Amino acid sequence: MEEMVALTLTLLLERGYDNTPMSLLAKTLGLTKPGVYHHFKSKENLLYTVHKHTLKRKLIPILDKAEREADPMERLKIFMLEFTAMMTRDPSPGVLIREARRLSPEHLEEFRKVWRRQFELVRGAIAKLQNEGRCRKDVNPTFAAFAAINLVTWTFEWFDYSRPHAADEVAKTLLAVFMNGIVGSSQQDSK
Amino acid sequence: MEEMVALTLTLLLERGYDNTPMSLLAKTLGLTKPGVYHHFKSKENLLYTVHKHTLKRKLIPILDKAEREADPMERLKIFMLEFTAMMTRDPSPGVLIREARRLSPEHLEEFRKVWRRQFELVRGAIAKLQNEGRCRKDVNPTFAAFAAINLVTWTFEWFDYSRPHAADEVAKTLLAVFMNGIVGSSQQDSK
Asked: Which single residue of A102, B38, B41, B183 has CA 20 to 30 Å from A14?
């Protein structure tokens, strides 16, 4: 399974979903074309299988870990740092996000549940910090949660994966910008 | 030109580039299929024409305006507010970003010059603020610039375009998070 997922992701990353025919996937996975259809039913179902496996192995453990943390500030920090580490470690989660529109509506809905859980983790933590007076009041928790998730998700569009040692500094900058952004009292230089 | 661009963008938004055949584009634009090829040479060239027009009309004026502002803090604010307003006003810039990978390498390179100009505007302003002691030192200007641009660019993936009145609050939240994030002295609640 691990190897199948890795090989499929490498192909999708190099060629994109639309330019990766099932015949090439079959060849890369060491299967015949009937064999790959027997295992995965369709190309969409192969994408779904790889995406589901990656969510289970990479994103869900981060959500589990963050949710176990009772303090909303620490919960946000754990989420931001680990999610950034995941996105900068290798480009495969990025390619799955990019190709998510190729999934069937049913499969997309299944993954939306995980993305909603991620969103609620962040939104809930921000709202709790506001209630406790530990977070700026002029920040809308819903939009700030989208901001935090976008800040990290789209690193794959610009991160240079040939410079893996930069990942820590990216994580530190994103965390500093976001946490300070929501926590600090109004620090804007109003000139 | 305006109408051609608007009609093409509406189709791309509804159907995606890959699912929009030239025959349908021709029909929507009131042209014959030979007519549309005569005008635009290829589907890729039509996408390029529409993208170029949109950059010229929407993004470049924001860069021009921000660059005319001498104060780096004000420059960042102008950029963040106007760029967010542009991305939340209608979803067409979003669909062009999403479909940019369909462009030829030459056309993509042409647009990358504009995106680099946008990036340098933000990175330069942050670096200048750091030199002047008006911005946190633990923020990497390059990664913070990517953060600012990502924060705004990807609003189109979550913004609810049926609720246009929310755009102002989105802009305010993104500005508050980012400006406070880079400007505030270390405000993180270290627990």
From this structure: B41
User: How far apart are alpha carbons A42 and A39 in whole angstroms?
Assistant: 9
Residue with tokens 């946008």: B118
- Determine contact, residues A177/B181, Cβ cutoff 8 Å: yes
Q: In sequence order, which residues have a C-beta less than 8 Å from that of residue B86 and are 6 or more positions away?
A: B58, B59, B62, B93
Between the alpha carbon of residue B190 and those of residues A115, A134, A170, A188, the distances in Å are 28, 12, 20, 21
Interfacial A residues in 123-182 facing B (CB < 8 Å) = 134, 136, 138-140, 143-144, 146-147, 150-151, 153-155, 157-158, 169-170, 172-174, 176-182
- Is this complex's ipTM strictly greater than 0.85? no
Probe site for chain B from A76, A126, A180 (most B CB atoms < 10 A): A180
Question: Is B103 in contact with B44 (CB distance < 8 Å)?
Answer: yes
Residuewise pLDDT in 10s, chain A (191 residues): 888 899 999 999 888 888 899 999 999 999 998 998 998 899 999 999 999 999 999 999 999 999 999 999 999 999 999 999 999 998 999 999 988 989 999 999 999 999 999 999 999 999 999 999 888 888 889 999 998 998 899 898 889 999 999 999 999 888 888 887 776 654 443 33
- Those residues whose C-beta lies under 8 Å from the C-beta of residue B54, and which sit 6 or more positions away, are B5, B9, B92, B93, B96
Cross-chain residue pair B177–A146, CB shorter than 8 Å: no
**Residue with token string 């979803």:** B91
Measure the CA–CA gap between A76 and A89, rounded to whole angstroms.
20
Both tokens of B82, joined, read 């106007």
